[in-house]
Design a protein that fits this description.
Two copies of one chain form a homodimer.
Chain A: E1 2-9, H1 13-24, H2 26-33, E2 35-43, E3 60-61, H3 64-70, E4 73-76, H4 83-95, E5 100-102, H5 105-122, E6 126-127, H6 138-145, E7 151-157, H7 160-172, H8 176-185, H9 194-197, H10 200-214, H11 233-241, E8 244-255, E9 259-270, E10 282-289, E11 293-300, H12 304-320, E12 335-337, E13 345-353, H13 358-368, E14 373-382, E15 385-393, H14 397-409, E16 413-419
Parallel strand pairs in A: 1-2, 1-4, 2-3, 4-5, 5-6, 9-12
Antiparallel strand pairs in A: 7-8, 7-10, 8-9, 10-11, 13-15, 13-16, 14-15
Helix pairs in contact in A: 1-12, 4-5, 5-10, 7-8
Domain Aspartate/homoserine dehydrogenase NAD-binding (chains A, B): 10-127
Protein name (chains A, B): Homoserine dehydrogenase
Catalytic activity (chains A, B): L-homoserine + NADP(+) = L-aspartate 4-semialdehyde + NADPH + H(+)
Amino acid sequence: MKKIKVGLLGLGVVGAELANIINSNKEDIMQKYGIEMEIGKAYVRDLHKKRNADIPFSKLTDNANEVLNDSDIICECMGGSGTEATKDYVVRCIEMTKPVIMSSKKVIALYGKDIIDLCMTKKSQLRFDATVGGGIPIAKVIKECFKGEKITKAVGILNATSNYIYSSMERKGYSFEQALKKAQDLGYAENDPSEDINGFDALYKVIVLALFAMKSWVNIKEMSTKSFSSIDIVDMKYAQDLGYKIKPLAIFQKKKDKKFVYRVGPCLIAENHIAANVINNFNIIVFEGSNSGKLGFYGQGAGSKPTASAMYDDLVSVLKTSFDYEMDLYDGCDVIHDYRDFTNSLYWRVSVDNIIGKLALICNVFAKNSVNIEKVIQKDEVNGKMDVVLLTNSVESTVIDLITHEFENNKVDVNTIIPFFND
Amino acid sequence: MKKIKVGLLGLGVVGAELANIINSNKEDIMQKYGIEMEIGKAYVRDLHKKRNADIPFSKLTDNANEVLNDSDIICECMGGSGTEATKDYVVRCIEMTKPVIMSSKKVIALYGKDIIDLCMTKKSQLRFDATVGGGIPIAKVIKECFKGEKITKAVGILNATSNYIYSSMERKGYSFEQALKKAQDLGYAENDPSEDINGFDALYKVIVLALFAMKSWVNIKEMSTKSFSSIDIVDMKYAQDLGYKIKPLAIFQKKKDKKFVYRVGPCLIAENHIAANVINNFNIIVFEGSNSGKLGFYGQGAGSKPTASAMYDDLVSVLKTSFDYEMDLYDGCDVIHDYRDFTNSLYWRVSVDNIIGKLALICNVFAKNSVNIEKVIQKDEVNGKMDVVLLTNSVESTVIDLITHEFENNKVDVNTIIPFFND
């Protein structure tokens, strides 16, 4: 009887859930694969913290190396913090050619290329289906639903926290800050919400999805996001008046010549687009495949249970393939282009003193910079200032900077600039 | 080297596509499974029709029995017509314990219980993943995405034709008939569209999905649908004024004690529900799982390519399991209940001569039958008749009949009755 010791790096909510799944499936693994699987050591930062898993105290250690040395397969459940340390543990496992199952998307997003390169050199197994999708098993869906076809484009709402905040703003009239506070109270946002709010969490997911769906590696150092917090409730209202909604979108596309185009940030989207009705903590991802056309997947974006369950599936896959080398992902692709490929139009909200000639002034600035105004709506006066909403054609960021600068010199406040997503 | 002859019943668009997939994957099957797979005989109604598959004339036959006798595995690609003959062929295959891959959902919906029972008795293999989903590989998604959890409820738009028609009515102002004509011109509706329009196609899919998702067999003889054609464009407009859309919905739920509740027909759905934004020939199905919560899948609802591809996957599964007996579906469940489980409210549109006392008359009829009116909207007069829209609580069909009868006696025309879907 073959024996396999599974080591755990981390025993938080995901690690504990995974330990329980492993324990309750021992019999099944024995019957199906003739393998006696057991949990070996588990690395924890605090030995005396109460755990939700049935693991004897003797198996806990605060020395990660003990886990690496003791185990045949290592499951990384380290969560979001200590990214570099997590990467180092994973690298050491690979160097020892011990299969690794990962859950940290940030580690893949930051160090994925090095990790995968090392796996290919060492011919060691690595799986990270659990790094993306939460309640929606996206990695599995990609493998099962797009067999033999190319995914060229994707649009999605990938961050549950920001979507919850936007939904509360839109539907309950909360300010961004009020909505964030509410999300924190409900556990949809962390105490330090910056990774979610600033779009990094969504960006990590884009990078992992680019690997799974497009077999492309893109370099996070060349990427940036637009913070989701730049939106005011009044923008939501004005967008609605135009037949649009503002959503925290991630859009990415693999073009010819290994060009990868993306955008992560707030976007105006037609109110009758399917993503416009995805609210609260729900996520959606719509892929465009060469044969299937558009295929969309919708579900709750987070949860320790689905993550642990995805890790367990990865573990079983490693058992089934009898430790064979297997890594067909990855196709170097690090050219990143302008997001204007997705959009023809920009929404601007500026405010200006309510004096004669104010609209002429604004329109002149756009005209001088060869920007076409498609629509102007003068809104109500608040404290002597007028909100003016303009829709223009999409322009390069250098032109945006020029216009913004000129507005500043003329006492026009530029409050919001958001692109439209044209599907 | 093991040899496998695959026989084809039918060589229409799906059969031809499948033949091509089989031919182009011979090498792969040889390498992976050590099996020499080849297409044996193919049953066609017309020997001399031009086919889109590279199959020598000598392999064609207009005698289905030749296919059954000659083949090791049989693929049924008979399409919608000749349901009873198709069933007979399938039954004969099973009696010979030859594995069958099916594509006809109607045959499963009508005769599934007998077919499955026979498979269990004969310990013969049967697969029918291709019977449902079109572009969305629903059977695979259910197997992969809901491992070890119960699906209790589902709501979806399962018929592309009716959804295309409703979208054209809503967005382009076409009448039902105009929209149907347009759908036929574009190939989204058949020359005889009755199976789609009357909801039978969606009902067959409900029955197959109940098998896959809920492991339940429900008897079509105890079921009925509401025709999608009962909707007028003015209903769409009134629904929109109320913040709703009218959609061709299929809703089903497995309750305790093997009770299966369902409804197939037009429904009012909140305009911010995800299904409300699923338009044209797109389908959606949102399942509710015990662990995952709501998981939705969205894509184009039809296509010979995805169907053939699903059949090929089934074929490979049969090869992989080395002809083992495998049929864990099916859990007798044929009690069907009132759809009022999904709805608290009904939409009524009646019209009446524009005379004094007309509203009192209408309201009295409802009051007399103990039906609560939640909202009344008197619409414009057209040719001396007033449209009146009422929202009431949901009532039993016998009460609906009573009210309708009484309205008739009082010269009130009942134009439309549609339930709201309360998610």
